Amino acid sequence: MNLKVIALLICAIMPATTVFAFDLQGHRGARGLAPENTLPAFAKALSIGVTTLELDTGITRDGVVIITHNPTLKSSLVRDARGKWLDEEPPIFSKTFAELQKFDVGSYRPGSREASRFPDQSGMDNVPMPSLAQLFDLVKKSGNEEVRFNIETKINPSKPADTADPDAFARAVVGEVEKAGLSSRVSIQSFDWRTLQIVQSIAPDIQTVYLSAQQRWMDTIAGADDWTAGLKVADHDNSVAKMIKAAGGEVWSPFYGDLSAKLVKEAQELGLQVIPWTVNDEAAMEKLIQIGVDGIITDYPNLGRNVMQKRGMKLPPATPVSP
Q1: Residue 254 pairs with which residues in a beta bridge?
Q2: Which pLDDT score, from 0 to 100, does residue 157 have?
């Protein structure tokens, strides 16, 4: 039997998987179109067709990994069981999962900054915060066996009382991923690189994504090294990409406004993928694709697909599912 026949036989018996050259990530599901970080938002993203579901996580008082961007119950996002907008913002970590299920996160508070930023979002009533396990169940229900999960540990080193500590946080997320048997389809990302270092030590098969921002409104690189697990950019030729490579990361996910063609090339020559956040303008998407990014994170995956289709790029399949 010749080598060509052997290769054909191997291909026939191995499960087929599709590799997409460009990673289209739905930010918080599809935040521009449906309530952020909820099962309806993830169902919307799956129905549109994305390569990856991007999401944020917190840990409840009883140790459940819950999907939420904010470490507190944000008053512009959360209503109580009577439909009243919250006045106070207690930490997620102070509530049990059962207690959190009584709150409604299906819409933005009228007149809030978020409501004005996302006028096309379809507000809903009686939408609870989902657990990470519930999202895994939804994707299984959809039948999509290829979509990936980019899971952020939402932790701030300057506010340790608001969340679980880095070790407990990382271990809880990894535990849920391994329980679901999804390590090969998961990336864990964070601005707080301490959690990524822990993930790399306890679950080296899970990809780590190093988030960064270098803007006036948020800078996790310059100055204090609280965010970067003690690494200093000055020790790495003032290169964020070199910092991440030294830290053992596989993906650099910067704010898209921080990127240039030169920086993308440098990172990729170091073996890193570059996937910027959060890109909501088609012109910006076009520019980023032109300079060679490996993917984008967007609140509007429908717009990302438009740009990809115009350029003749391979599109991820749509897998409609009800939440």
Answers
A1: 212
A2: 95
Which of 128, 122, 125, 124 is closest to 34 using CA atoms?
122
Name the pairing type of β-strands 214-215 and 23-26: unpaired
* Distance in angstroms (rounded) separating the CA atoms of residues 156 and 163: 8
pLDDT at 275: 98
* CB contact burial 237-248 (16+ within 10 A = b; e otherwise): eeebbbbbbebe
Give the DSSP per-residue string, 217-283.
Answer: TEESSSS--TTTTT--GGGGTT-HHHHHHHHT-SEEEEBGGG--HHHHHHHHHTT-EE--B----HH
DSSP 85-120: BPSS--BGGGS-HHHHTTSB-SSPPTTSHHHHH-TT
For the question of whether the overall pTM of this predicted structure is more than 0.85, the answer is yes
DSSP string, 66-88: EE-SSSB--TTT-B-TTSPBPSS
How high is the pLDDT of residue 133?
Answer: 98
Q: How far is CA 200 from CA 140, 188, 277, in A?
A: 26, 10, 22
